[in-house]
Amino acid sequence: MNDTTIAVRDGSEMRAYVARPDDAPEKGIIVLQEAFGVTDYIRRMADRFAERGFLAVAPELFHRTAPAGTELSYTDYPSVAPHMQALTPDGLAADLKACYDWLLAEGVPTEKVAAIGFCMGGRAAFLANETLPLAASVSFYGGGIADQLLDRVSDLSGPQLLFWGGEDANIPQEKTDAVAAALRAAGKTFTEKTFPGAGHAFARDVGDHYDPAAAAEAWAMTDAFLAEHLG
Predict the structure, then answer these.
(1) Sheet holding 27-32, edge to edge
(2) 79: three-class secondary structure by DSSP
(3) How many domains does the chain have?
(4) Hey, is 127 helix, strand or coil?
(5) Is residue 162 a contact partner of residue 191, using CB atoms and an 8 Å limit?
(6) How many other β-carbons are positioned within 10 Å of the β-carbon of residue 110?
(7) Looking at residue 21, which CATH number applies to its domain?
(8) pTM
(9) CB 19 within 8 A of CB 12
(10) Cα of 1 vs its chain's centroid, Å
């Protein structure tokens, strides 16, 4: 496990956490952060995928506005907000393309790249599926998908897995319904699962939002989904 620096086409540089499998990678995954940075939780998720044979890369998406290695408190929303507000779809797309190209340069086959993200990263994983030739994408409670990304849903490349919390005050059912309706209208392959008693960030095993039962089911579905589409 180590960090690397990835050049982005806009001239910026982005630090990323890398978790490598024991053997030469036959598949790769972009692991996309929550709004708090590439935290211990995100690094552990990357490690989890490396144990399953993926070359995992977790980019620092706030690299244009925050020093490398920035991690923010889960309760310090005033510090989080300026970095989130500075993100743009074009900037994120450039970051995602840089990660995709890095994985290919490391020997991952073009047809064996996936993305997964949580909260803000869930939206980024959906964007990755719209802008890159992914084999599959997984979004955990991706806030903002309905508001920002449905105008390009016809560009979705791989199957999409979506997880929602039924008690998530940040993403009401009208938003999740809008995402599903757009995917159906575009004829895209997708699976969604709403956990009725779960709130936002139910899969993060840090803090009050954690729902172990929902998280376990979501991870089992994720592993099966990625196995189906990446082998």
Answers:
(1) 2-7, 13-19, 54-59, 27-32, 113-118, 136-140, 160-165, 190-195
(2) helix
(3) 1
(4) helix
(5) yes
(6) 13
(7) 3.40.50.1820
(8) 0.98
(9) no
(10) 19
Crossing angle between the packed helical segments 120-131 and 89-105, to the nearest 10 degrees: 70
Compute the half-sphere exposure of residue 162: CA atoms within 13 Å on the CB side of its CA.
Answer: 28
The C-alpha atoms of residue 203 and residue 139 are separated, in whole angstroms, by 12
Nearest to 121 by CA among 147, 152, 142: 142
For 11, the token pair is 């001239």
Dihedral sign, CA of 29, 208, 218, 160? Answer: negative
Q: What are the distances in angstroms from CA 206 to CA 11, 44, 114, 217, 230? A: 35, 12, 25, 17, 29
What's the pLDDT tens digit per position in 30-82? 999 999 999 999 999 999 999 999 999 999 999 999 999 999 999 888 999 99
- Contact 70/36 with Cβ under 8 angstroms? no
Q: Domain range holding 103?
A: 2-230
